[in-house]
Write a structure and sequence with these properties.
single chain; about 130 residues; alpha+beta; 2 domains; four-stranded antiparallel beta sheet; about 15% strand; elongated
Length: about 130
């Protein structure tokens, strides 16, 4: 599938990148919200005034628990996004100024996308045969 009229800007280094984006029916909002939440918790955790509070040990335990919980949710969102068996994402590669969308539903298809990309990027690399 060729993505025409999309907002994806391709530059020469884009030929070396695989973009994984949620399908149209999969909201990106939850990922952004969880990233913001994790950033805010880390900012709170770095606040020096909390470390001077009388109840700092309890506060630190709670903040650590919240960070761990949020990081776990982020991990699950990313795993679901990049797991091709979930069919929740579109994988995009670029050739020149053309973006190519790939709907994948198996790990073998993702391996082929990456393999084709490597064949294109490293096309003049000499082949070395191992005789070991």
């Amino acid at each position: 599938m060729i993505l025409r009229g999309s907002n994806l800007q391709c530059n020469p280094t884009s030929d070396q990148v695989v973009y994984v984006l949620p399908r149209e029916d999969q909201p990106l909002v939850s990922l952004v919200d969880v990233l913001r939440e994790l950033f805010a918790l880390q900012e709170i955790n770095n606040d020096a005034s909390l470390h001077q509070h009388d109840d700092r040990e309890r506060i630190q335990r709670e903040i650590n628990w919240l960070i761990e919980d949020t990081a776990g949710r982020l991990d699950n969102i990313i795993k679901n996004l990049i797991d091709p068996r979930q069919e929740k994402s579109v994988w995009i590669t670029a050739r020149g100024n053309i973006a190519l969308g790939h709907r994948v539903n198996s790990p073998g298809q993702t391996t082929k996308i990456v393999s084709d990309l490597c064949d294109h990027v490293f096309s003049i690399t000499p082949a070395l045969n191992s005789e070991g």
